[in-house]
Amino acid sequence: MPLPNEALQVLRSFWVTHKKPTFTFTFPARGRGNNKASTTDQPMPVSTPQGVFRKAKNTAGIKKRRVTVHTLRHCYATHLLEAGVSPRAVQSYMGHKSLETTMAYFHLTQKGSEKANQIINEVIKGVGRE
């Protein structure tokens, strides 16, 4: 999946200040409770970013119940399709085996159909006037 340049720069800055030669993961699990040692051979648990997202959502005053980290994934795919990125490319970025799975994102947007109408009108413009 392509990584925006700004995100890449943030991750590079993080890596420079937080890397340790024993880290297997960029965001390793940390010891909990009395165990302060870093567990570098395990990835960060899924619950960690989910908890951070939930806290940020509450702080922002977002009251919708079904807004999750996974919602961001859906938004990302939908925005890519709206921007005209090839459905096959989005399929690859999202890790979908089937294009049908990716095509489910099309129902979330009207921009795609609006853009299609513009393209059709441009292609057909002038046809039959000759």
Automatic annotation (TrEMBL):
Biased composition, class Polar residues, residue ranges: 35-49
Pfam annotation, one family: Phage_integrase
Span of domain Tyr recombinase: 1-118
Keywords, ordered alphabetically: DNA recombination
Start and end residues of each stretch annotated as Disordered: 27-49
PROSITE patterns found in the cross-reference section: TYR_RECOMBINASE (PS51898)
Transmembrane segments: none
Name recorded for this polypeptide: Tyr recombinase domain-containing protein
Organism: Desulfoluna limicola
Upper lineage: Bacteria, Pseudomonadati, Thermodesulfobacteriota, Desulfobacteria, Desulfobacterales
